[in-house]
């Protein structure tokens, strides 16, 4: 319970947050697992060569995802940047040294237009230009597809280094179709699956569907260190990532990186500090991510989802007793693995509208964050996954208090 005034944030004079909106980075993402914290503490007790540790992580990620290799990154976002850098530079040290400058070098990443999103800045940060394809007809009801397979095929040219895909249960065209088109053109596919866990089966699903690189957040459902992520995929691309990320600017006569990650024979010399150097991952984060991943895959998905669903139902039941609220539990097991409580405020009768309510909750101490994306439609949401049951009760009480109505 974070309401007792005894968090480290209270000590620092900063209001803590009760998280009723899910794994959002801006309010701390998730609570790290005990197993990961313990691993981080132990990692802090000794030195290790980071490349050795990444090589061990690669093996573990490869076992869990079925990919050839893997890498621990600074969040899924940096996994996307490093993945794009690998697709642009391959094993060319000079290109690596020039990134993100890609003048005169093939560096286009093709994306279905409806997959464009704020996180694709991560791809552009490597120096890529995004070429988006198709329109938005399906969503608008003006056509049956947003992007036709032939349009993707036509957009892939000599300038293309990858096709990027944002994975959601509803994204189209199907991933397998996109993989087929990309591979017919000898171009790799990078998938952003940052938030597509659980189910744990998704760790291997996209690799099974043939993708070349897939990014997951380590600080969302996996509940590893907040600044960790996973990139899994083709060995040659992961090796390129390692070269652009590891601090490798060592004395050449004694340069001896682990061969699983760096193919010394194929290198003309020692790589410089690469694009990834500003996305450092510490020994603590690598060890913590591996421990969290092990614990995550050992979890019973169904039990976790059922626990979240029960909490949603309970919260919905309590909010229903507030006269000016209309409450439903949405997305239970349909498009989204996590159920969400969707609350509509009857603004004709309520003393405050949805926007005022959401803002007032955020201004309290502790701050209460409910989902506010749909306040213009008089709605807010409560996501059960980062809430303890005692906090859920407190959130319901504070909503009632702000509506100046007693909850039952
Ligand atoms: C959260 C998220 C990211 C970024 O992940 P980090 O691990 O926070 O870097 C990227 N893409 C999508 C779709 C996300 O939801």
Index terms:
408 residues; 7-stranded mixed β-sheet; globular; 2 domains; 3-stranded antiparallel β-sheet; 38% helix; alpha/beta; Aspartate Aminotransferase, domain 1; Aspartate Aminotransferase, domain 2; binds pyridoxal-5'-phosphate
Write the layout of secondary structure elements.
Blueprint: H1 8-11, E1 17-20, H2 34-43, H3 50-65, E2 69-73, H4 75-89, H5 93-98, E3 108-112, H6 121-124, E4 129-133, H7 137-140, H8 149-155, E5 160-166, H9 175-184, E6 189-192, H10 202-208, E7 213-217, E8 229-233, H11 235-245, H12 283-298, H13 301-319, E9 325-330, E10 340-345, H14 354-363, E11 367-370, E12 379-382, H15 389-402
Parallel strand pairs: 1-11, 3-4, 3-5, 5-6, 6-7
Antiparallel strand pairs: 2-8, 7-8, 9-10, 10-12
What does this protein look like?
By secondary structure, the protein is α/β, with parallel strands linked by helices. The protein folds into 2 domains: 8-29 and 300-402, Aspartate Aminotransferase, domain 1; 34-298, Aspartate Aminotransferase, domain 2 (3-Layer(aba) Sandwich), CATH 3.40.640. The chain contains 15 helices and 12 strands. The protein has helices at residues 8-11, 34-43, 50-65, 75-89, 93-98, 121-124, 137-140, 149-155, 175-184, 202-208, 235-245, 283-298, 301-319, 354-363, 389-402, and strands spanning 17-20, 69-73, 108-112, 129-133, 160-166, 189-192, 213-217, 229-233, 325-330, 340-345, 367-370, 379-382. The strands form 3 sheets. Strands 2-8-7-6-5-3-4 form a 7-stranded mixed beta sheet, with helices on both faces. The chain has a 3-stranded antiparallel beta sheet with strand order 9-10-12. Strands 1-11 form a two-stranded parallel sheet. Helix 2 (34-43) packs antiparallel against helix 12, helix 4 (75-89) crosses helix 11 and helix 8 (149-155) runs parallel beside helix 9. The model has no long low-confidence stretch (mean pLDDT 94). Residues 25, 75-77, 119, 192, 194-195, 217, 219, 229 line the site of pyridoxal-5'-phosphate. Pyridoxal-5'-phosphate is lined by residues 25, 75-77, 119, 192, 194-195, 217, 219, 229. Keywords: Aminotransferase, Pyridoxal phosphate, Transferase. Residues 149-242 form the Aminotransferase class V domain. One of its GO terms (molecular function) is transaminase activity.
């Amino acid at each position: 319970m974070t309401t007792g005034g005894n968090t480290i944030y209270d000590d620092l004079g900063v209001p803590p947050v009760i998280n009723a909106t899910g794994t959002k980075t801006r309010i701390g993402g998730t609570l790290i697992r005990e197993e990961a914290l313990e691993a981080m503490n132990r990692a802090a007790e000794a030195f290790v060569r980071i490349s050795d540790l990444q090589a061990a992580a690669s093996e573990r990620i490869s076992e869990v995802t079925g990919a050839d290799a893997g890498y621990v990154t600074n969040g899924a976002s940096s996994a996307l940047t490093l993945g794009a850098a690998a697709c642009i530079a391959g094993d060319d040290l000079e290109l690596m040294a020039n990134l993100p400058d890609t003048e005169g070098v093939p560096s286009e990443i093709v994306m279905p237009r409806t997959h464009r999103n704020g996180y694709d800045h991560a791809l552009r940060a490597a120096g890529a230009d995004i070429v988006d394809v198709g329109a938005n007809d399906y969503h608008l009801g003006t056509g049956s597809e947003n992007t036709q397979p032939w349009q993707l095929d036509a957009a892939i040219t000599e300038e293309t280094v990858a096709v990027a895909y944002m994975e959601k249960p509803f994204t189209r065209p199907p991933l397998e179709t996109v993989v087929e088109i990309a591979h017919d053109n000898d171009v790799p596919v990078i998938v952003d699956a940052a938030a597509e866990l659980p189910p744990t089966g998704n760790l291997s699903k996209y690799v099974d569907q043939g993708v070349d690189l897939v990014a997951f957040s380590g600080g969302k459902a996996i509940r590893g260190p907040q600044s960790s992520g996973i990139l899994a995929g083709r060995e040659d691309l992961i090796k390129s990532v390692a070269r652009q990320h590891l601090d490798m600017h060592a004395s050449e006569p004694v340069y001896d990186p682990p061969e699983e990650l760096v193919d010394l024979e194929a290198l003309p010399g020692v790589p410089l500090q690469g694009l990834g150097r500003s996305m450092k991952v510490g020994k603590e984060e690598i060890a913590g991510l591996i421990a969290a991943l092990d614990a995550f895959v050992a979890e019973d998905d169904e039990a976790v989802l059922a626990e979240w669903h029960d909490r949603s139902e309970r919260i919905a039941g309590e909010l229903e007793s507030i006269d000016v609220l209309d409450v439903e539990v949405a997305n239970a097991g349909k498009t989204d693995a996590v159920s969400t409580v969707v609350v509509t405020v009857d603004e004709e009768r309520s003393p405050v509208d949805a926007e005022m309510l959401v803002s007032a909750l955020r201004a309290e101490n502790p701050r209460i964050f409910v989902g506010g994306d749909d306040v213009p439609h008089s709605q807010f949401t409560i996501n059960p996954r980062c809430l303890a049951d005692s906090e859920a009760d407190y959130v319901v009480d504070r909503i009632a208090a702000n509506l100046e109505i007693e909850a039952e």
